[in-house]
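Notes to self after the call with IL:
- keep both proteins in one doc
- input above output, always
- annotate only the second one for now

Protein 1:
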Amino acid sequence: MLISILSAVIIFGILVVVHEAGHFAMAKRLGVRVIRFSIGYPPKIFGIRRGETEYSIGATPFGGYCRMLGDEVGEEPRPEEIGDYSRELALDVLDAARQHGKVLNGNSADERIIAIAKQVCGNNRAGGSSLTLAAQAREIIGRELSPEESAVLSEINSAGSVDDAVKKITEHPDRTLARSYEARSFPTQALWKRALIVLAGPGANILFAPILLTLVFMYGVPVPLPVVGDVKQGLPAYAAGLKHGDVIVSINGQPMDTWNEFAETVRSSNGASLKLDVKRTVEGSAVHESIVLTPTRQDEKTVTGKMVPTWVIGVTPSGDAKIQRFGPLDASVHAVASTWNLTGQLMVGIASILTGSTPIREALGGPIRIAQMAGQYAHQGLADAAMFTVMLSIELGIINLLPVPLLDGGHLLFFIFEGARGKPLELKYREMMLQVGLFLLVALMAFVIFNDISHIVQG
């Protein structure tokens, strides 16, 4: 059980980092300030600030977030937001001084910021001559101050307190700060920029799949061998004399290297007779036999839950497998193809749930079932655990694109309304939709957890 929990936490942690890193990288690329990059939700158990961003770890592991400047629902920035932005700018200066190697007096961040403000903005002298603001800043923090940083430090130097300065800025926002806030905040960006930032999260999860799969295929994946496991009575294989442990060497003279090749040959036979070259062990010796049989049609359930007639002979694989490794180029090709197929299957599966073709109780699993599956794949080996991670990554990317408020797809839905109307949807409607989305997600989480428990109870 412990391995299952640890495996689930590690896998979810990787996928959250990938997802939020997509938002983070695109926001940075487009000039939006990222306040915090967190793995897990509060309470915070660890945090470190580097540059403009605080990188933290929360005590709740299943999730994470990338908090951008001004990414709340409000239509216009509140004075409090500009006040908070001024504090962030002061911390930027403090971090720059730290990186520059400047030793500052003070037990707290606020005391060190006040010390910087006094040295940079006060009437300090060096060598008997008055230093300019720019020269003094370069000496303290290793670079010149931006106009907005200069405005904040001047206010702190004048007030003698960071809190008092922030309070004054909140009550009477400086025009320079307001312009800087609008340039760096998420809500004030052009519509296409906001859409790209939101899309980057799910896109990173989907893009992560072929990257990880490439490494998996290079590392080596188990490929089922054409060795017969169970033989079902009443079907052609049983009637023709196939037995457990038989190795399918060829069909109609075509070599069979893997179980998938064997199964696909049977499915595509269209009911024509097949000549199987079989190797089996008789009294300790390997002998070859030829068996002729004719596949029959039997209904099989597809990923959509529908029963489709398929050509079968009535055998299952034994589980014997070989490790197959690919070079970088072949691994990349197989990874892209596998990602495409998995994405298609997952989209069809989600559609079948929404249309009712697949019972929702059978299709949906919550954190308990995912942890169980993570543990099972972890026990099977690194390649199997990685394949499970790939599947979850694609699924996370697709689900996040669903037009449900609170998900990335919900934000994109708001953007579509905004593009069609030429202005954002009214705040009251957005808040109403977010409340509905929150209710739906909480209800879904409660359902899948109850579903997981009921499966455990029922065995």
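Protein 2 (the one to annotate):
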Amino acid sequence: MSTLDSDQNVRPTLSRRDFLRYAGLVSGGLALAACSTAPAAKSPTSLPAAPGVTAATVPGTTNAASLGKAVIAYAGGACEAPTFVAYERGFFQAEGLEPELIALEASTLKEALAAGKIDGLQQTADSIKSIEQGLGIRITSGLHKGCIRLVAGVDSGVKSIADLKGKAVGVHVFGGLPQVLVQWALSDAGLDPIKDVTFKIFPPPQLEAAVQKGEVQAFAMYDPFPAIALNNKSVVQIFSTHDNAPYKDMYCCFVGIAQGVVDQQPQKAAAITLALQKAAYWVSQNHAEAAKIMTAKKYVPASEELLTSLLKLYDYVPSVGIGKLNFLKYAEVLKQVGVLEKDTDPAKLTDLAVVAVTPEFVPGSAQAPGGAVAEFPAHLVRELYAASPLVTCGPDHALGHSHAVSQFYCNVS
């Protein structure tokens, strides 16, 4: 088995039972790029509105009902932009919600969601093991891709996945999605994903220092921490969920809703989901403006310039159907590496965990007066077209057509 170390003390090798119990307790909710202490939530800012796209004009049917208070949590990650935008720009309110935005540490989010202390959040697939164990968490949509990186020290000798054999890799929690992706890559490279690498636990802000001190040779984490280390030239990138297949085709972040809300207040579950989907679409159109929102109240520990560049990398393409397929793949990987129980059926677990509370979200469905249509990045149109027959493109921008401007202009039939 892999050893589980802290940044100060070496802990004994975990038994499989202890590993599974620890993974279920610690991994999950929203890991993202949380600081060791998340910043306090702020009231909505008065930044000027971005031109052209508002909560009213983003695709989706606004729920006019008054659905009451919705407690939404965050941990301070770069890719949590939809959460901050939905709060600051009125997307939650447009769906009939009275949002309360609270900051929690990543390690507490899963339990808070399952206990009903919060209603929803942007979360990763880190909670799959906990859902298997009965925790009341439901996934209602895939939200975006591209925010996880595996990086290695410039002097570590690690230039590829194969070079990780016998090395130590830093992660923020044991059993979290960054570690799962590394184990998936190890398995694809013909290595043993459990025995060939030692995983060590560090708070996210300490991962770069751990590489520099030689405590680990690489680390896997959500942005902005790997991006900051790359900017500092202390590491090189081995893979990212933006650049490398098959990871770049997988959602790293989803919409998580408390099971009690899904079961007892399905309208509220749908409103939270749709608000985050619409906000994600807004972010895809307004990278710089989203970065301003995030830095204005210090939601994320990174500069506006860095956040803008990161948001341009993330594919904010909300989808219920594709999200469910991706969740299933993660469950299959966890079963393969021994995290899920031997008698767990990944397909049945996915059917339990992923619940459709809204219709499929289709970018381009809101047309402005005068026949103008919404823009959407060209490289995403193939995927959207495959996922939904509703998306069609004009003859000058047909699928596969080479075009100098990386945009397609799509209507909904």
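Annotation: Residues 266-285 form the longest helix (20 residues). DSSP finds 15 helices and 14 strands in the chain.
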